[in-house]
TrEMBL record:
Domain Aminopeptidase P N-terminal: 62-198
Name of the protein this chain belongs to: Xaa-Pro aminopeptidase
Record GO terms (molecular function): manganese ion binding; metalloaminopeptidase activity
Top-tier EC class: hydrolase
Organism: Dissoconium aciculare CBS 342.82
Swiss-Prot/TrEMBL cofactor(s): Mn(2+)
Catalytic activity: Release of any N-terminal amino acid, including proline, that is linked to proline, even from a dipeptide or tripeptide
Function of the molecule: Catalyzes the removal of a penultimate prolyl residue from the N-termini of peptides.
The UniProt record lists the keyword Protease: yes
Length: 486
């Protein structure tokens, strides 16, 4: 058992290993020692990518010490003599040997900083709240495999870079993990409770060699892990907020640039956004965007993005970039030709007024929850629609505003999924505020609003007494939008 107090600084010490020598290949033919700075890893580290990572960082903006604090905070929530088990995401294939871009499981990334597939992390809690043991099972270094697929970090780096107390070959986990499980009074994991099944389930649980593991994970002592991690994830650290500010600032600039441009198709607009994120320093898109011209905006998650854009219509764009795994979430709606019609302006300003009102309440001293904000949003939209000539009745909003006003954001677009919307919002939590109205082309609605879909969304940080709008660089006032092409 390792006491993680002074050893929390161990990663900093290990990360300064550029002057040390070690054999990273675990192969007698490669027994000659090499400088760690010359070794290739499965993800950027400061020694190989100083333009991406600062000294001590495991992922952009997040230090090895912060990852330790996250594991320690989780361990403090666990009962004595219990363990938490997490599996990395799989590499997913679109056809044959053609794969999608790898995206690490956010829970696994949150606790480890390790950004490769085929890995398992175990956090073992002992008798004390200040002690835990971090086990990390990863793919070993393999010259033949790395010739084709690129570098792996390997077992030694799991300790020297990612601060694991115990590291092992993922191929041998069936011989190691059952003993760890057997010594635990309770096991916290989400393996087996989610779909699709992970590779960990297939080659560990499905193996005849580890029937004891399968039984252990099915026993009554197994509890859900995600609710415990969600309690940690919703509260953002200063480093996390900085990552989100960077993602949001650049995403806001790119969105404003898109509003300034003249686009003839949804796909062309999509391409400009995607290029803008990467060319200005982000890792890429945070999610598949909605680029919805005209009536396409009536589908909340329209992502085909393959229609032409027409003069006189609005285009709704729900998009954002990602930095270090942290996302930005923005929606803007604007006229394709750069000028609002009277009906478009009236509807837009009504929604914008409601959005501003909700954003102003995103403070800890307002005693707000997401559900309370949603009720306030609904009341504002209901009054606004009535003033615009829409019929009365609660069923009107069921049809015209079918989604919630907001959600948590962070490593996921919908961060900490499953976390309660009824809990009061606290300082440094991050949410979206996104009222919208989507008017079907039906006789029951005022004619000049039919087929109009408008949503306005910003990412915000809950403040003690003030609100921080992360996505403020994406303009949203009518005169600001129209002046972009004046």
């Amino acid at each position: 058992m390792t006491t993680h107090l002074a050893p929390a600084l161990r990663s900093v010490c290990r990360r300064t290993f550029r002057n040390s020598t070690r054999s990273f290949w675990g192969d007698a033919r490669k027994s000659a020692s090499v400088r760690a700075a010359d070794v290739q890893f499965g993800q950027p580290v400061h020694e190989t990518h100083p333009h991406i990572l600062k000294p001590g960082e495991l992922t952009p903006g997040i230090s090895a010490l912060e990852y330790h604090h996250r594991r320690a905070a989780l361990a403090k929530q666990l009962p004595q003599n219990s363990i938490a088990v997490l599996a990395a995401a799989d590499l997913k294939y679109r056809s044959g040997s053609v794969f999608y871009e790898f995206h690490q499981d956010p829970y696994f990334l949150y606790l480890t900083g390790f950004n490769e597939p085929e890995a398992v992390a175990v956090i073992e809690k002992g008798q004390s709240d200040v002690e835990y043991t971090f086990h990390l099972f990863v793919r070993p270094k393999d010259e033949k495999a790395e010739k084709w697929d690129g570098a792996r970090s390997g077992v030694q780096a799991a300790q020297d870079v990612f601060n694991a107390d115990e590291a092992g070959d993922i191929g041998n986990i069936a011989n190691t993990l059952p003993a760890i499980l057997a010594g635990a009074s309770e096991v916290y994991t989400d393996i087996g409770s989610t779909r699709p099944r992970s590779a960990f389930e297939r080659f560990v649980i499905g193996s005849t060699k580890v029937d004891g593991l399968a039984q252990a994970l099915k026993s009554s002592s197994v509890r859900r892990l995600r609710p415990l991690i969600n309690e940690l994830r919703v509260n953002k650290s200063p480093a996390e907020l900085d990552c989100m500010r960077r993602a949001s600032d650049i995403s806001g600039i790119v969105m404003t640039q898109a509003m300034r441009g003249t686009h003839t198709s949804e796909k062309q607009l999509w391409a400009d956004l995607s290029y803008g994120y990467r060319s200005q320093g982000l890792d890429g898109e945070a999610y598949v965007p909605v680029i919805a011209g005209g009536k396409n905006a009536l589908a909340i998650h329209y992502v085909r993005n393959d229609e032409l854009l027409h003069d006189g219509e609005m285009v709704l764009v729900d998009a954002g970039g990602e930095y270090g795994g942290y996302i930005s979430d923005i929606t803007r709606s604007w006229p394709v030709n750069g000028r609002f019609t009277d009906a478009q302006r009236d509807m837009y300003n009504m929604i914008l007024s409601v959005q501003k009102s909700c954003i102003s309440l995103c403070r800890e001293d307002s005693n707000m929850s997401l559900d309370k904000l949603h009720q306030i949003c609904e009341n504002g939209l209901r009054d606004g629609l009535k003033a615009l000539g829409f019929p009365k009745g609660h069923e009107v909003l069921d049809k015209l505003f079918p989604h919630h006003v907001g959600h948590y954001i962070g490593l996921d677009v919908h961060d900490a999924p499953g976390h309660s919307r009824t809990e009061l919002l606290m300082q440094n939590q991050c949410i979206t505020i996104e009222p919208g109205i989507y008017v079907p082309d039906e006789d029951r609605w005022p004619e000049h609003f039919r087929g109009l879909g408008i949503r306005i969304e910003d990412s915000v940080v809950i403040g003690k007494e003030e609100v921080e709008v992360l996505t403020k660089l994406a303009v949203k006032e009518v005169d600001e939008i129209e002046s972009l092409r004046a």
